[in-house]
Amino acid sequence: MSSDHKQTILELNNVGFGYDRSKPFIDHLSFSIGDGEYIGLLGANGSGKSTLLRLASGILKPTEGSITLWGKHLPSYNNKDRAKLLSYLPQMLDVNVPFTVREIVSMGLYPYDIPPEMKIDEALEIVGLKEKAASSLATLSGGEKRRAFIAMTLLQGAGLLLLDEPLANLDIKYRIEIQRLLKKLQETKNISIIMALHDINAAFHFEKVMLIKDGSILGIGKPEEVLTAALLKEAFDVPVELQKTSSGGTYIRYEM
Amino acid sequence: MSAIKVVILVCISVLIFFLTLFLGPAVINPFNLTPMEKEILLSIRLPRAVVAALMGMALGASGTVLQGILKNPLADPYILGISGGAALAASFGMVSGAYLFGAFSIPLTAFIGAVAVSVLVGAFGWKHGRLLPERLLLAGIGLGFLFSAGLMLLISVSSHEGSRRAMLWIFGDLSSADWSLIPFGLAFIATGIFISASRAKALNALMLGDEFAHSLGFSVHRERLFLFAAVSLMTAASVSLGGTIGFIGLLIPHIVRFFTGGDNRILIPVSALCGGAFLCFADMIGRSVLSPMEIPSGIITAIIGAPYFLYLLRRKDVLGS
pTM score, two decimals? Predict the structure, then answer.
């Protein structure tokens, strides 16, 4: 299941993990992400999306199998070196800290002894928060908060972003805003992204999606190949109908 | 500009430290010292001011660190039961009259009590090979209740003089401060502040959450362990120097945060300085207003500090929320 053309950045090989020793939660899972790829990770609640991202980021240790980053065993990296290559943004539902936007963004420099090329102002500019640099994080909208943390990861300079539901609890304006920002980063800075999400319609905008259930991959590939009515029913345990828009896009419908 | 505010806070703190040397029940003119005044200054006021400054610095810094690692704005250095253990051990020495080591007896018993409790709280807070903040907090609160019950029992069955001394000490008694303890206090407190300040970036990241801290390249469990050790060391040293003093560890970090913002690289040293200056000031008031009687510093810190904190709370956003 590895990428055919692009250089592999992160590879999970036969990874197993369980919170409870007796039963595995992630079961012999293998996949890889290539340089500059943008993958949507889809699955029902409790399917293992967050666990998978935590394993991939090194927060959780697999009980079986191995994870490699740029061809090297993930645990063999020291923390700071890993942080320069891979950045993980957890779900941000209750981040309430007494920091300003500039202070949050500048934390992206923490892994470095010698500051990298990108400056704090540049990162703030890219995410459109330059005017809010001195504002307290707590005064920002949900979308702005997430943009602030995305700016932090930009400054961190990692080529691979693992994002756990960055669109959760945002209204449509902010969801579109975050998706456009991430797409722009992927295109202009060649950043590879794996993003867990709930919104199936949003997943159609990805070049690649991965659908998981009970810690196993149901399908991985182009959205139109993976997000079929049959596989979606299996993943979410509810029948949905796929419809085409006049412009050729796909969206899901369901009966009430 | 927070940089200007930081400079002003630092200057005020240093100024307060020197002012408290010359103000008090008897005002001393620094430019015209009599031999008697010189003696009072060097043997009584200076060591007392240094002890107050060290204790206040330890409490200000450890309060800041603890609020960060526990992610709880209500945390103070005493919430982990460290002071409770120290108070129980020291009071046991006082009421039983067991002064085995002369002037060092009380500080030594308090320090041993504080370190023993730190290890105990750490052991209860330890699970799956790591220090868990919620467990640490609950273990500290549980042990704190146990120690205060023990302390009350000890005081209620002890002689009048013994229990009065113990009560005074519990509220912070600087009247017996002299040079003998300062090198030990300085060594422990300076080490604690150095460890905390050198790990301020990690503390900032830990405040965002363990997963953020991991992603930013920190070893979460190791950093938390170092910071907990620093807090334990500072709290133990502070309690052994002059008893338990409330308010500083809890509210000085909040007050300083109003002026400097939340970055622990600035907050830890400035909270330490302001805590030190504030305790010097409170001690000066405590020995002046009802002279020759002394009011324990812990009472003064709360009487002055709490209304000021409530005033700031009305005027500004607390914790950025």
Answer: 0.89
